[in-house]
Amino acid sequence: MIMKDNTKTDNEPLTPTEQDSEIQKVEAEIDKLSPRQRNLVIERYEESSQIYEGPLPPASELIKYNEAHPDAADRIIAMAEKEQEARLVNATYMLREDAKTKKRGQFMGFIIALIVLDGGMFLLSQGRALEGFTTLVGAAATLVFIFISGRYQGSDKDGDK
Asked: What is the pTM of this model?
């Protein structure tokens, strides 16, 4: 008869209950340490779990990089500066393209409005008063609606209600 070994290897994931049990064992071992030893363990843990945000690591980390490789800090700072410049160039490009798109849309809208208004005027000149008048009023109402809704939409985007 073959017996199974129920112990898990270090690579196998633990269940939440097993994790709690392991943490309690570690905490019990840490409690057995002298205050000096405990502080060393805590310092080592804190050292390995520092998190920072931003383009550059803290100055203490830059010093360590320089100790590992000469001029590493300068290279990291240069890399962050290049990244910032690239972001600025990209943002500027996007703003210019957005402005071009808006101008193009306004131009196309103006052309369409002229065509519709000319169509209404043509219908009026051909004696089709009802159709011509309806076309002109419809075009004007549409343009006013687009203008007003565009103003409100633009103010929502900026946060001005």
From this structure: 0.48
